[in-house]
Write a structure and sequence with these properties.
globular, eight-stranded parallel sheet, Triosephosphate_isomerase, Triosephosphate isomerase, alpha/beta, TIM Barrel, 251 residues, 8 strands
């Protein structure tokens, strides 16, 4: 039985004071024993603050990115998977559409980032998704397949079992648009079928999150779909009450 996961991506938002307030509100608004896995991804400079503030709570902490190279080295500005594991992170986001579009990350780099995360005991959230133009051209499934192909080449079935996939239609991120439950379910089912080609057991246990303007108002209907196992939440995760309501919808 797959357990749902709700992940809050705080992106490049906040400062020490606002994050202290958000962490305090999360501690009071979320149940002590939620029926869903929960993780938040603060800006890396606030990782220590958030890890301390959420210590002893049911909320895991992750980073929004990781280096595709192993451990120490001359990679100025990067943070390795071993460093993230050392400070207490459990998850890491790889391949977010903003990293792909704004910073030119390739699917091959994303696969290497996922591999480095897994080698250090971190759980990678591998993001995939199409642009509005690609959807209009009917290329959604082709794009998703191409983005996941390097993942299947780089990772073993055993490693894939510790991986989470997040489907985030690029046209729905921060736009207020949301894929309909039927649209989202179609892509999630396709992703699960791709993983089933590697292993049927793997596919059954794979958690696939939906990301793209997830809110409390639409979370319940989205999470009710057979192949949607929670959400990668952006702006709504910066509001403790809204994020808590999304978590309750996933229970």
């Amino acid at each position: 039985m797959r357990s749902n996961l709700v992940a809050g991506n705080w992106k490049m938002c906040g400062d020490s004071a606002s994050i202290e307030k958000l962490v305090a509100e999360l501690r009071t608004s979320l149940p002590a024993e939620p029926g869903v896995d929960i993780a938040v991804f603060p800006p890396s400079v606030y990782l220590a603050q958030v890890l301390t503030g959420l210590s002893g709570s049911p909320v895991a902490v992750g980073n929004q990115n990781v280096c595709d190279q192993a451990d120490d080295g001359a990679f100025t500005g990067e943070v390795s998977a071993s460093m993230l594991a050392d400070v207490g992170c459990r998850y890491v986001i790889v391949g977010h559409s903003e990293r792909r579009a704004l910073y030119g990350e390739t699917s091959e780099q994303v696969a290497q980032k996922a591999k480095q995360a897994l080698l250090r005991g971190l759980i990678p959230l591998v993001c995939v998704g199409e642009t509005e133009m690609q959807r209009d051209e009917g290329a959604t499934l082709e794009v998703i397949s191409a983005q996941l192909k390097p993942i299947f080449s780089a990772l073993s079935v055993e490693q894939l079992q510790s991986t989470v996939v997040a489907y985030e239609p690029v046209w729905a991120i921060g736009t207020g648009k949301t894929a309909s439950p039927a649209q989202a379910q179609e892509v999630h089912a396709f992703i699960r079928a791709l993983f089933a080609k590697q292993s049927e057991q793997l596919a059954k246990g794979l958690r696939i999150l939906y990301g793209g303007s997830v809110k409390a108002a639409n979370a319940g209907e989205l999470f009710a779909q057979a192949d949607i196992d929670g959400g990668l939440v952006g702006g709504a995760s910066l509001d403790a009450q809204e994020f808590s309501a999304i978590c309750r919808a996933a229970e």
